[in-house]
Specification:
single chain, about 350 residues, alpha/beta, Rossmann fold, Dihydrodipicolinate Reductase, domain 2, 2 domains, 7-stranded mixed sheet, 6-stranded parallel sheet, binds (2R,3S,4s,5R,6S)-2,3,4,5,6-pentahydroxycyclohexanone
Amino acid sequence: MLRIGVIGTGGMGRHHIGNIQSVIPGARVTAVNDANEAIAKQVAADCGARFIAEPRQLIRADDVDAVMIASWDPTHEEFSIAAIEAGKYVFCEKPLSDTPEGCLRIMEAEQKAGKRLLQVGFMRRYDQAYRELRTVIEKGTIGRPLVVRAQHRNLAPAGGATITSDMSATNALVHEFDITRYLIGGEDTYVSAQLVAPRSSRFCGDDLIDPQLVYLETKQGVRVELELFWYCRYGYDIRCEVVGDLGTASLPDPAHTVVRCDGQSAFQIVPTWQERFDEAYITELREWIASVQAENITGPSAWDGYIASLVASACRQSRLTGGIVPIRSVDCPDFYHVNF
Ligand code: ISE
């Protein structure tokens, strides 16, 4: 039985805890922590775990074999490094760090530890539709990928959270940066990014550009066109199409049953990512737990977190300058090559 300590009992932390306690065999939550002690204590009581007030104490605890980090984004780096230094396996929600430099520090710590200990929560790689799409591309059915077009639309920010334009890349678009590499092949990295702001929605407030359009180019010349919309107001809508030189492939749309009735054709669009990626979250945890038990971590790595963070940082720069920003990564250490 893998004993997991969870730092962060907000929406995502509670979602993972619910899955571990109810649908995933072979693991249980033994300790929880959150900056909001009242919520953490309640969650601890509900799931039969103990509350630990100090995150570093939770990381070192004898009854914690692996650490799950689902706390506030800017704390991810500090807790990941502390867990790695304690020799614990760690599952860190995205973003791995708010900055590429932070990701490099995590990679350094992990390489010093001598083996992969960390997995990043890029759960789309566990979604069946994305996996099918990748298989089609890998088989060569649509030929060489040339263009990827994706839309990432939220009904509204979860829990009424205040979103800034900078968070758009680190918090939401990082999923697109990662899943696109996963689809077209991880060795083909990004070389430039541009963020373009159309007229903003009337519903997003003055501090946010919404929607945002992002254009990326890869080393092999694939063009990626992304749209992020925080306040689309009609549902949680994730779409992706890959154009190849022999054909195109896309995620199923709609993902739900189509009903034709009363002179109309309609289907449901779910309101949040928890519903859309419900199965993916479960598969992600199941595979992570199995890989920890086998002492062979194969899921999204700190290198993958670093690439996503580099692109996010280029988008931030492009938002300020309006121009195309070159993306230059360090060389991928051999340590991380095995992953793709
Ligand atoms: C959220 O944090 C997620 O991770 C969701 O998958 C994403 O769609 C949403 O935009 C983010 O805010």
